């Protein structure tokens, strides 16, 4: 009897007396419901001899029955997936949509705008004819903007219940400010609403997907018959605003610091090497890449081919300053070369007045211009900066004709620049002057990394080349730029 008493727990009865009835807590798992029930029942039977045991027995049975019923219901719903499918289906003719696309990266404390730099737009659509609901009471609904988990809808499903949408709405972390500030509520006008001011106060790293979405839902009360489906944006990453100072520019500008380019970290090794050689801006990098790409690669240092291509391709997306041009003349002042702001050849003159497009030159003239160009690239300090509108030409671009061939031939005869370089040498046709190969091979990379700057074949250059200047082309009546020297790998 003593041992039995020690094994029982004390319970306070309704009459205030202590009762020793041991009731095991239900720890049954799915698939084995009987064992804990029998064990608990056995403990209850041990205390039947005590008073007021009916109260404890009733509580125990209620708990067991409730847990067992919940397990059976869950099993039934899990085994009958079609029940869930039916319950999640929302046959609604109206839905909210984000008309503009959000950028892939957003910074905290910065206004959320679309990829095209405009305000975020939301519209109410009638899915039956894919039109905006611009008339009637639904065209002026009040809409709430919220933050959603980036995983919501990641499986590609566009069908969800109102409960599922609300379950994915994110709230601020403990001790933080509200996750969203600004235009949390907007009113549609003719079925369209704009979110002019919206700011995230926290980054998205604290959730598993590391991404947020914007959500839009109608603010109640709203007619149940309307049954308007919520809208969601594409997922995006929210980073701390302190990282915005280090973000890359797409596209970069010529005056941007060189570390704004991809693969060049601020105060990193490549940035330090370039700064050591006086390359501080994107324009500095492009000028050296135009004049001597192998020298630029040497200054960048030992990097992979992929990184090198990424740097150059990103730099080449910048807009060229149309107003900044340079002229280089020979000692005789009879031949002149016209370069743009990053030293790409855009014009040639043989008489000091009429500038020709490089693509119309004959082979002898192209050899002459190429040699002079390479000589000019070694003497960029002698470039004279001019404004394109200051070029005093009776005809901005005069195509080479019969009357100009004599001037060109005279320029060929007078032209005498020492071009001896290491490597291949050739001879000018008709004048016996040597010319040098303009190919560059970098010793620090594998043999396949050869940077060729051959006599340009302008006809191969695409018309939409980002280095083409529309205003320059208009000024020179169709002037083409030299694009072959921008191909880093042959």
From TrEMBL:
GO biological process: regulation of salicylic acid biosynthetic process
InterPro entries: Calmod_bind_C (IPR046829), Calmod_bind_M (IPR046830), Calmodulin_bind_N (IPR046831), CBP60 (IPR012416)
Listed transmembrane segments: none
Keyword DNA-binding: yes
Ranges where the Calmodulin binding protein central domain occurs: 254-318
Pfam families: Calmod_bind_C, Calmod_bind_M, Calmodulin_bind
Keyword Calcium assigned: no
Record-annotated Calmodulin binding protein-like N-terminal domain positions: 95-240
Chain ranges of the Calmodulin binding protein C-terminal domain: 325-385
An example Gene Ontology CC term for this record: nucleus
Localisation per UniProt entry: Nucleus
Molecular function in Gene Ontology: calmodulin binding; DNA-binding transcription factor activity; sequence-specific DNA binding
Keyword terms, alphabetized: Activator, DNA-binding, Nucleus, Transcription, Transcription regulation
Family as reported in the entry's similarity comment: Belongs to the plant ACBP60 protein family.
UniProt cross-references to PANTHER family, sorted A to Z: CALMODULIN-BINDING PROTEIN, OS02G0177800 PROTEIN
Annotated protein name in UniProt: Calmodulin-binding protein
Organism whose genome encodes this protein: Glycine max (Soybean)
Phylogenetic placement of the source organism: Eukaryota, Viridiplantae, Streptophyta, Embryophyta, Tracheophyta
